[in-house]
Amino acid sequence: MVSQLAFKSRIASTSSLEKIFNAQEMIASSHIAKARKVALDAKPYSDAIFDAVQALVAHNDDIRHPIIKKNEKNPRVAVLALTADRGMAGAYTSSIIRETENLLSKLDKSGRQPELFVYGRRGVSYYKYRNRQIAKTWEGDTDKPGVRIAEEISSTLMDAYMATADQGGVSELYIVFTEFVNMVVQRVRVLRMLPLELVQASDASSAVDAPLPGEDKHEMTALYHFEPSAEKVLDSVLPKYIQGRIHECLLTAAASETASRQNAMHTATDNARGLIDDLTRKLNASRQASITQELTEIIGSADALNKEEE
Questions:
Q1: What is the membrane topology noted in the UniProt record heading this document (predicted)?
Q2: Cα(254)–Cα(40) distance, rounded to whole angstroms?
Q3: With contact defined as beta carbons under 8 Å apart, do 115 and 77 qualify?
């Protein structure tokens, strides 16, 4: 039987852990409201610039630009994985790593050569421990990413994408991140950011583009005119598009990390309290058994003395 001292030691250590888990949960709770607001506020801009670029290239079949397709055959592909700097976030980082591994495996099987970019200390440690070659890493403030880190990441990836195959460039760019849906649901997504996946012009058109009664739909044409040229306009839009999408991914990943940490710490706190209650019951049962044994020994000794006197 486990001694009472062992039960008391385990209760004390579990109580210390429960306090740590509860403190982490309270910290995450204080941060989640702001992180969620920042992530949701960044989404309209990112969606707007994505819809604008997609509409431009979808309505103009004669555009030849790297934002749509690179003209050279290049098997190298860039993959950016957004992980966390700190732990205590449940399965947040492990889910990102698992999805990244699946993507890398699919790219390898298709004959392409993935180049890995990692954001977050946990992901960097994972791949370095397994001797996985990493093109570049970024660490720090994954739960509060700023514009500076978004600019640095977007600049690095844009340089890799715009470079030729002889210069070590890549032909595609993928991002693996966690999308913040709500406080309970955070979904891991794989986004192919470049080149754009185009939709048909008829599918991309909105209700504003619909023909009026009596008009022929086939005579409708997109009202786009580029000055000085389509290539220069897209050259100017491309850096803003990359930075906007990456910044949005960083912000929604930060909100997901904070929500995951709050949920994980809430569960850990409840488990610690349940374990303390279970250990306390066992300690009381052990104490009661000890008292019963002592009483039995005293009564037995008293009976023995009475028999000797008789």
A1: Peripheral membrane protein
A2: 12
A3: yes
Model-level pTM? 0.78
Q: Report the CATH fold assignment for 26-196+222-263.
A: Pyruvate Kinase; Chain: A, domain 1 (3.40.1380)
Q: Label residue 38 exposed, middle or buried (CB < 10 Å: 0-12, 13-18, 19+).
A: middle
Exposure of 275 in the CB half-sphere (CA atoms within 13 A): 18
Closest by Cα among 253, 201, 202 to 62: 201
Interatomic CA distance for residues 109 and 213, integer angstroms: 52
Average of per-residue pLDDT across 10-29: 89
- Is it the case that residue 212 has pLDDT exceeding 80? no
CA distances to 2, 120, 189, 190, 264 from 76, in Å: 60, 23, 21, 17, 37
List the structure tokens of 225: 């005119």
